[in-house]
Amino acid sequence: MSATDHGTGPGPIPARAGIGLRHPHVQKFLDAPPAIGWVEVHSENYLAAGGLRLSALERIRRDLPVSCHGVGLSLGSAEGLDDAHLAALARLFERIEPGLVSEHVSWSVSGGVYYNDLLPLPLTEEALGVFCRNVDRAQEAFGRRILVENPSTYLDFAASRIPEPEFIAEIARRTGCGLLLDANNIHVSAHNRGFDAGAYLAALPLAAVGEIHIAGHARRSIGGETVLIDDHGSHVVAPVWRLLDSALAHIGPVPVLVEWDTDIPALEVLLAEAAQAESAIRRAAAPPAAARTRSAAHAA
């Protein structure tokens, strides 16, 4: 079934800023799409075969590129992927034809029970093998390359033997998938686990990055210690903006998404943060100052 059959328009996700499309703002997008590069939706919110929600997404898709970000495929599940869930996602992607499809380096299903969370993996060779097999199966079912997102974590498994950036790099190498780099997740995990965020970023397979997420987080005091919680419920903080700048300086311009999933603000607040992200992308696209000086001298 082609994009034309469903009236869809724009396809690839541009190297611009986008925002997560959430229910409180859908009607505004239907009435008059705002000046934004693209939108991202949570895949599992659109698995019904029809209805008003899917119809609205199809209408929005005519005007803006759409990315599908999954939260329930559970690529880290040792028992493999759920056939029905995989098939439902494949049907959605065929219908919407998203510019990007992404999931998480995590697990959320065991024994047929869905835990409604993105749970961390032990960084072992066994877990790596399981994850790669599941990514291979998903990419075959979808007929496309997917991106996988680095996790937000709060502790280290005693059984872990592989550094996390190496674990993620090996997933990309073995499966050919790409990386969704979440700058907020790096900041949250670095604070909670005590590692250097810049060194972690530098160790990731940056050539495989196809998209970047930025978001806010909560601060909680637990046992006298401050813990950062990846809740996507507030403004992006300065260290995450700096990580975004650093990532873009290494990678070059790629799509950047502002995520806001709890305490969702007015659309104008999201658009203002997206404008800030757009400025970061433009800075990354600009030639270095020395190159500009040489170019100007040559022109003179």
The CATH topology: TIM Barrel
Q: State the distance separating the first and last CA atoms.
A: 55 Å
Uncertain stretches = 1-8, 290-300
Name the CATH superfamily assignment: Divalent-metal-dependent TIM barrel enzymes
How would a crystallographer describe the biggest sheet?
A: 8 strands, parallel, barrel
- Proportion of helical residues: 40-55%
Describe the protein in words:
- With 300 residues, this protein is an alpha/beta fold.
- It has a single domain, classed as Alpha-Beta Barrel (TIM Barrel).
- Helix content is 41%, strand content 19%.
- It is built from ten helices and twelve strands.
- It has an eight-stranded parallel barrel. It has a two-stranded antiparallel ribbon with strand order 5-6. Strands 10-11 form a two-stranded antiparallel ribbon.
- Helix 3 links the parallel strand 3 and strand 4.
- It is globular, with a radius of gyration of 19 Å.
- It starts with 16 loop residues before the first strand and ends with a helix.
